[in-house]
Amino acid sequence: MPKISETSVNAVLGALDIIDVLSDYLTLKKSGSNYKANCPFHDEKTPSFMVSPNKGIYKCFGCGKSGNALRFVMDHEQLTFIEAIKLLGKKYNVELIEEAQSPEQVQLLSKKEKMYVALDWAKNLYISILNHEVDGKIAREYIKSRGISPKAQETFGLGLSPKGWDSLLRASQVHKLDEGVLNDAGLIVKREEKTFDFFRERLMFPIIDTNGRVLGFGGRDLKGDGRGPKYINTPQTEVYDKSNVLYGLFQAKRAVRNKDRLILTEGYTDVIALHQAGIEEAVSASGTALTEGHIHKIKRFTKNVVLLFDGDGAGQRAAKRGIELCLRMGLFPKVCLLPEDH
């Protein structure tokens, strides 16, 4: 497995904007020529965490934590230097030049980093299957029937999980991916003496964090035989917890900041449809009810939320619960009412 060259490391460091990086984690408020926020490294009610964009550094006058954008990501995400460089390289679209790595160096990769590598590989495999002339035909027809454009398909990284019980598993063996890592990432399932793919013949929606890392997937059934649920999500793993993840936030975060508003919808295709219509500040709660974890994530970007749920009874009840939770946690919610059959 390769390592990152010194040239690439320097390119990532040169691309960093400390305000842009820290805004993915904190709600920064202007304070003179600097910015301030509540410190993420200790509990406090009055902000003592200061960020200087001119110097490219931060310092907390409460607990003493300080450093640059890279150090912040390392400490907050609990990453190694190289893991943080990879994460930030993806965020800033810096091409990383890689060099050969010894078996000993491969062993030093953290468990989570190996999971991210496996999940990213799976996303690319699903995309390639969707784009295959024959294998992806039915899925592409479904995508077209839902009004999803080729551009939106690419923006959201839609893919297709393969047919067969263990097609992904067999493909991973060709690329020498560790079976235990695939299991930890929720890509395969082990039951007694059998091992098989978790997602089979489903339209795949990669769930991505604000730094561009794949955390898991949502899969929509395309067989239509009623033998399984219409949608399934990656099971909870060390990197994916659906109660803390908002689908589409990676694509929406810039628009959310610019408009100071976030629109919360029910499903993956709702997010994509709104994005295509120019309403790019839309996200969804990944097939679960709105949680405190989701609210904490939203508050990093805005306090203004529009709840856009289905117009049926279940949607109205979800909106009511969402309003109560938003108000209790300091957000300013609004509700967009849809007709009952929408």
Task: Tell me about this structure.
The structure is a single chain. The protein is an alpha+beta fold. It folds into three domains: 3-98, DNA Primase, Chain A (Alpha-Beta Complex); 110-240, DNA primase, catalytic core, N-terminal domain (DNA primase DNAg catalytic core, N-terminal domain, Alpha-Beta Complex); 249-335, Dna Topoisomerase Vi A Subunit, Chain: A, domain 2. The protein contains 14 helices and 17 strands. It has helices at residues 6-15, 18-22, 69-77, 81-91, 103-107, 111-130, 137-145, 150-155, 167-174, 179-184, 249-259, 268-276, 292-299, 313-328; strands at residues 3-4, 29-31, 34-37, 49-52, 57-60, 66-67, 98-99, 159-160, 188-191, 194-197, 202-208, 214-221, 231-233, 262-265, 282-284, 304-307, 332-335. The strands form five sheets. Strands 2-3-4-5-6 form a five-stranded antiparallel sheet, covered by helices on one side. A hairpin with a 5-residue loop joins strand 5 (57-60) and strand 6 (66-67). Helix 1 crosses helix 4 (81-91). The longest helix has 20 residues, at 111-130. It is globular. The N and C termini lie far apart (49 Å). The relative contact order is 0.09. The mean pLDDT is 90.
